[in-house]
């Protein structure tokens, strides 16, 4: 039942199960390699990573697996903030810094060549699959990456964004439904208009691009993956399902929160990073959402402002101030190993096919 | 492949494809009977209907089909509004009344025994399947309906609501994902927290109730129905897919709007009825959304206030003031017949099963 699957063939993997390249330390080399070794596609979420750390982790992944793996990077944006705007945003964050005894406000310094250096690492380290979030990179970058046979994958939250990805030369596109945890990949048009449920988004995207579509958003187990394939996707990308697994680098509080939350407990908010992302509602979100939006800096500046708060909140065990990214299916989360997640999905999908045919009248 | 499906067996239908009981004139006797004759479950949306009209339409459906059909009714609410609140709400609607040359403000009069009379009709007219939206009716109503073998179906937008439906004796429950067009069925908890995508909602509901689950939201074709079954649902309820079909009683402008819209063009709004519902964005929504919420009366009072506006807008061909309910998959809409919708779904699902197994390595 996996024969003729273009994602499997093109990536040289066994099953079209893709572990999302979540940034922020979740995607350890252990996690990415475990997923690849189980026959899926493991991914390093390198969005915020410095080139040196990227090199180290990629080398580790290569040591742990000989199978295909990927790296996800962020297409950069360089917003400006005036001193007044920054002071205004910091004012809202002062109570948390006081509470967590953080004495210094961070300095906002963007490395304008980070993306370029990250791409260089992907080239020199021979990373076989490169995926992008928050837009499409310049065409030359895509061309260079593809020159040596790398597969490039984009992210879309609307049909229009999927078409833009295809037109820019992406080999595949992830269609991210509104259920998805973490950051919205929206890069063209309004964020609130791009909250399309996976069940709606996937077939509409499939009908409008020729490249293979990978469904993302809400899938946690064999049922979700099987449904994604039925919708016309050639693969399924799972994020939250892997956050709670054994090999994940997510903080213990983050794992616990997902494992103990309900489907009604997540919310899409920009208060942590300046860009909408889905996470579990906590006091930081509730309090910060009381602002009018102008109290936040644009992404990634807001992310820099809250970085130390999130870090200290984790180390002082204050989950109410952490960014607890989660999709809308937390009730399906488990703490099994990554390989066991992949295996149980494969078992379910293969058995479901056979049973279905057995039931045919 | 349909063997062992509890929705099929219990409803005595051929395929677990349910046409949603949409209120407001969409579900003609032609539509409901065509779906039932094609092997699915046709439904009359009787939410706003007077008992006499219900009787007439039910008799027609029975004349047109000998198969199982259903009727959907609304669990009533009786909010109050002060004269001041009503005047405030009417003030916001004045410009539309002026534009459409509507001279009188409507009088707000709720028939407090409408629901009771509707239930009586369902009993005397031997309606075999009764579904409810906006909550669960008193236990005696459910008991009475079930006494003569009627199947009762509830609506849930969260796991908790599904559990409430099961506990009240519902035989099945529709799990309505955030993609769904028209009114949100939410009746317990906050509306904005109950916007769960179908891909997330269905398996989580399936895991928490023993009664069969019918998926709703975003499904328009064989791909969606197949995906719903993969998620563990025993059936799929389609609304928007049937709004544009030949037998639908939807206004021409409504059909046209769905057929020509994009997945990013719908929005959830309370401005038409006082309750959140998903429809295609137009000037009425955009202008009325500028209010702070207090300019709207509660459901169903706001619905009464806007009724004449919506009606006149349709007859004067001003779709910008109509309620153009639609789910998030309008790009998948077609103007084929109802039977052809059901047939193409069945063909797709059966073929997909066989192909899948053929591909098994």
Short key terms for the protein model shown above:
41% helix; nucleotide-binding (chains A, B); 361 residues; 14 helices; three-stranded antiparallel β-sheet; alpha/beta; TIM Barrel; 11 strands; homodimer
Summary of the model, kept short:
Chain A is of the alpha/beta class and 361 residues long. Chain A has helices at 6-11, 29-37, 51-64, 83-99, 114-124, 139-147, 159-167, 198-206, 222-230, 240-243, 252-259, 283-288, 301-315, 338-358; strands at 17-19, 42-45, 69-74, 129-133, 151-156, 172-176, 182-183, 213-216, 235-238, 266-269, 277-280.
Overview of this protein structure:
2 copies of one chain form a homodimer. The mean pLDDT of chain A is 96. Chain A has a domain at 6-90 and 110-249 and 331-355: Aldolase class I (TIM Barrel, Alpha-Beta Barrel), CATH 3.20.20.70. The longest helix of chain A is centred in the C-terminal third of the chain and has 21 residues, at 338-358. Chain A is of the alpha/beta class and 361 residues long. The first copy, chain A, is built from 14 helices and 11 strands. In chain A, the strands form 2 sheets. In chain A, strands 1-9-8-6-5-4-3-2 form an 8-stranded parallel β-sheet. In chain A, helix 9 (222-230) crosses helix 14. Chain A has helices spanning 6-11, 29-37, 51-64, 83-99, 114-124, 139-147, 159-167, 198-206, 222-230, 240-243, 252-259, 283-288, 301-315, 338-358; strands at 17-19, 42-45, 69-74, 129-133, 151-156, 172-176, 182-183, 213-216, 235-238, 266-269, 277-280. Helices cover 41% and strands 13% of the residues of chain A. The two termini of chain A are 21 Å apart. The interface between A and B is large, with 55 and 55 residues. Chains A, B: Its cofactor is FMN. Chains A, B: This is Probable nitronate monooxygenase. Chains A, B: It catalyses: 3 propionate 3-nitronate + 3 O2 + H2O = 3 3-oxopropanoate + 2 nitrate + nitrite + H2O2 + 3 H(+). Chains A, B: InterPro entries: Aldolase_TIM (IPR013785), NMO (IPR004136). Chains A, B: One of its GO terms (biological process) is response to toxic substance.
């Amino acid at each position: 039942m996996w024969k003729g699957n273009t994602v499997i063939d093109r990536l040289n993997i066994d099953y079209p199960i893709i572990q999302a390249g979540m940034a922020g330390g979740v995607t350890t080399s252990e996690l990415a390699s475990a997923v690849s070794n189980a026959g899926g596609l493991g991914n390093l979420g390198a969005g915020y990573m410095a080139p040196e750390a990227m090199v180290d982790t990629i080398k580790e992944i290569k040591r742990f697996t000989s199978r295909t793996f990927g790296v996800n990077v962020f297409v950069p944006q360089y917003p400006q903030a005036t001193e007044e705007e920054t002071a205004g945003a910091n004012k809202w964050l002062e109570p948390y810094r006081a509470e967590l005894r953080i004495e210094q406000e961070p300095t906002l310094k963007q490395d304008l060549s980070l993306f370029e250096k990250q791409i260089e690492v992907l080239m020199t380290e021979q990373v076989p699959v490169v995926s992008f979030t928050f837009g499409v990179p310049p065409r030359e970058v895509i061309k260079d990456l593809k020159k040596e046979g790398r597969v490039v994958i984009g992210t879309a939250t609307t049909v229009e964004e999927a078409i833009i990805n295809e037109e820019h030369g992406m080999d595949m596109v992830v269609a991210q439904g509104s259920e998805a945890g973490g950051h919205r990949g929206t890069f063209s048009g309004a964020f609130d208009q791009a909250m399309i449920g996976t069940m709606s988004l996937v077939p509409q995207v499939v009908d409008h691009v020729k490249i293979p579509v990978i469904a993302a958003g809400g899938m946690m187990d064999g049922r979700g993956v099987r449904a994604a394939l039925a919708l016309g996707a050639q693969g399924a990308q799972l994020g939250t399902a892997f956050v709670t697994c054994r090999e994940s680098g997510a903080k213990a509080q983050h794992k616990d929160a997902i494992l103990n939350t309900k489907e009604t407990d997540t919310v899409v908010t920009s208060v942590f990073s300046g860009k909408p992302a889905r996470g579990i509602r906590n006091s930081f979100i509730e309090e910060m959402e009381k602002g009018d939006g102008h109290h936040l800096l644009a992404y990634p500046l807001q992310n820099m402002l809250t970085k130390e708060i999130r870090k200290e909140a984790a180390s002082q065990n204050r989950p109410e101030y952490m960014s607890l990214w989660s999709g809308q299916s937390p009730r399906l989360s488990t703490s099994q190993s990554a390989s066991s997640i992949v295996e149980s999905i494969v078992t379910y999908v293969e058995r479901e096919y056979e049973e279905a045919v057995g039931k045919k009248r």
